[in-house]
Automatic annotation (TrEMBL):
Subunit structure: V-ATPase is a heteromultimeric enzyme made up of two complexes: the ATP-hydrolytic V1 complex and the proton translocation V0 complex. The V1 complex consists of three catalytic AB heterodimers that form a heterohexamer, three peripheral stalks each consisting of EG heterodimers, one central rotor including subunits D and F, and the regulatory subunits C and H. The proton translocation complex V0 consists of the proton transport subunit a, a ring of proteolipid subunits c9c'', rotary subunit d, subunits e and f, and the accessory subunits VhaAC45 and ATP6AP2.
Protein name: V-type proton ATPase subunit F
GO CC annotations, alphabetized: proton-transporting V-type ATPase, V1 domain
Record-level Gene Ontology MF annotations: proton-transporting ATPase activity, rotational mechanism
This protein's record includes keyword Transport: yes
Keyword Ion transport attributed: yes
Protein keywords: Hydrogen ion transport, Ion transport, Transport
InterPro entries from the UniProt entry: ATPase_V1-cplx_f_g_su (IPR008218), ATPase_V1-cplx_fsu_euk (IPR005772)
Family of the protein in this entry: Belongs to the V-ATPase F subunit family.
Free-text function comment from the UniProt entry: Subunit of the V1 complex of vacuolar(H+)-ATPase (V-ATPase), a multisubunit enzyme composed of a peripheral complex (V1) that hydrolyzes ATP and a membrane integral complex (V0) that translocates protons. V-ATPase is responsible for acidifying and maintaining the pH of intracellular compartments and in some cell types, is targeted to the plasma membrane, where it is responsible for acidifying the extracellular environment.
Pfam families, per the entry: ATP-synt_F
Length: 132
């Protein structure tokens, strides 16, 4: 699967604050598809939640995106939409931002994994006090 993705040229997309998006864009992930839609969205305090939801849904539907990176604090705003996404591709990974540290108890992937592993297995990911 990984080789197939590399051959097709799959993308990483980002939904995040300005610093996060700029960092990834400087790293070279920025792309615009044939319909002139970018693979990133900069979210600020004035961005409506509905716009974030719509962007996430568009990224999920795109066949050229394999990974969606989203700041965890932004993921909390659209948690119901993220939890409704059950397919493995595109993978949704929650990342910290400069102003909001990572909280393992809020991570949707760790919540799903909780039922499959022992709590000791998850402790290496910083989930020692995970109670969700």
């Amino acid at each position: 699967m990984a080789l197939q993705s590399a051959v097709k040229g799959k993308l990483i997309s980002v939904i995040g604050d300005e610093d996060t998006c700029v960092g990834f864009l400087l790293g070279g992930i920025g792309e615009i598809n044939k319909n002139r839609h970018p693979n990133f969205m900069v979210v600020d305090k004035n961005t409506p939640v509905s716009e974030i939801e719509d962007c996430f849904k568009r990224f999920v539907k795109r066949d050229d995106i394999d990974i969606i990176l989203i700041n965890q604090n932004i993921a909390e705003m659209v948690r119901h939409v993220i939890d409704a996404h059950h397919t493995p591709v595109p993978a949704v990974l929650e990342i910290p931002s400069k102003d909001h540290p990572y909280d393992a108890s809020k991570d949707s992937i760790l919540r799903r994994a909780k039922g499959m592993f022992n709590p000791e297995d998850l402790s290496m990911f910083g989930a020692e006090n995970y109670n969700a």
